[in-house]
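Tutorial, part two.
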Amino acid sequence: MARGLIVSQLRVAAGSTEILKGIDLTVEPGRVHALMGPNGSGKSTLAFALAGHPGYEIVGGGARLDGEDLLALSPDKRAKAGLFLSFQYPAAIPGVSVANFLRTARQAVKPGDLPPAKFRQVVFEQLELLGIETAFLGRYVNDGFSGGEKKRLEMLQLAILEPRYAILDETDSGLDVDALRAVGDSLQTLRKGKGAEMGFLIITHYPRILQYVEPDVVHVMMDGRIVKTGGAQLAQQIEAEGYDGIREEVTSGAA
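Running the prediction step on this input gives:
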């Protein structure tokens, strides 16, 4: 059985508009892939389509998660199968504490695998590893959180839920330098511990987050297609030249 999050010739539409026009992408266990591209290129559409958002229609191609047909599963079963999506703008849930949220989420994806005492131990271990104060647990989910706190909560969710593959949709959006570094450090900590075998797809417009989490592979998406794939130096090229240089390469290659 082929392991990985394997996307093959995926085509996705929203309404009558086809946004993704044949995406081929494989995220292997233990590796970090970065998906970069200008606004409107289809990056978030890919994330939502893989997670099962009802606003996006699969019109061609497929996706498999460690050999299982991902697109045949309902969104909750995709999560149980090991897929995690962090949102660009996480929703606030007033009245629901972080502690209860984490316990409920863990029970939903891995029912009964941790008794309450063991779960509590795991949570406090991860709080210490990620440098998050225990008072965080008593706050309501994302209610009054800063941008950095929302993202750090997502890192804590990653550590507690232990998915096989994590899609981080513009997790650096709106963060200042200190918050960005904290999120980057959290990702590095996860990769050294529970996330060592986790596959990551980091979706980003700017290469800032990649200063803290070096990708194994960088893909560039434009107009619903992956137009270039390379190593970490590709992100550095985009930092120096912007996307115009890539666009010129693609245009001249197609001429």
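The chain has a mean pLDDT of 91. In part three we will examine how such features are distributed along the chain.
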